[in-house]
Amino acid sequence: MSETFCVRYQDTRLRKPVQKISMTYPSRDQALNAAFLIKEKNFDLLEIRGSEGSLLTKFDLEKALCVATA
Fold it and tell me: How confident is the model at residue 70 (pLDDT cuts 50, 70, 90)?
């Protein structure tokens, strides 16, 4: 079975921030695209997690999005 990915993010518009998880994506690239769209809605990105333990931290995620949009 192949690894799937999801984006963990935080809704800071509320008085008490709420952490949320996106739907699952079959590739890291699709999860990065979703993270870009989530960030456009002014949510705070936390990480991308893979079902087999892979992790893209907040710092690396922000860096990847900066490179992709440059």
Answer: low
10 Cα distance to chain centroid? 10
pTM of this structure: 0.85
Q: Mean pLDDT over residues 16-34, rounded?
A: 93
CA distance 40 to 26: 22
Express each pLDDT in 29-54 by its tens digit.
999 999 999 999 989 999 999 999 99
Dihedral sign of CA atoms 33, 44, 61, 54 in order:
negative
The half-sphere exposure of 47 on its side-chain side, counting CA atoms within 13 A, is 8
Helices 28-40, 58-69: axis angle to 10 degrees equals 80
Phi/psi region, residue 64 (left: phi>0; alpha: psi -120 to 50; beta: rest), is: alpha
